[in-house]
Design a protein that fits this description.
This protein is about 35% helix and about 20% strand. The termini are close together.
Length: about 150
Amino acid sequence: MTVAKIVYASLTGNTEEIADIVAEALENLDVDVEVNECTQVDAEDFLDADICIVASYTYDDFLLPDELVDFHEELLDLDLTGKTYGVVGSGDTFYPYFCQVVDQFDKAFAQVGAKKGAQSVKVELAPEENDIVALERFAKILVETHNIGK
């Protein structure tokens, strides 16, 4: 069975909700899913997963949340060749760099050899109906991409 690991950072609960939506969509596709808050795991826990997902908010203009700084650095030390990844997150278009942390993790995963499974999904604040549809499609494409690479 395919195993997915979702690691999230959430300040207001919006990104945790995003992670839960993706997790439920993956479970509906017969994927074994583990969801963890970023301070409860290490980046190397991704080594035990087939599909690796980070869900994060972007703080202020474009800063990594404090609780994700170490995780991001640890991620850059891994070799995730053979893994499929995806990144989702929340942000506020009030700031000039909307959901910049999503892009930072996308680059980090690519740098460590993981294969991009789906286009990132960026949500304005809390997920609405159109965002839920996009997140469910994100999960479906991740699984399809992973299965093609088997």
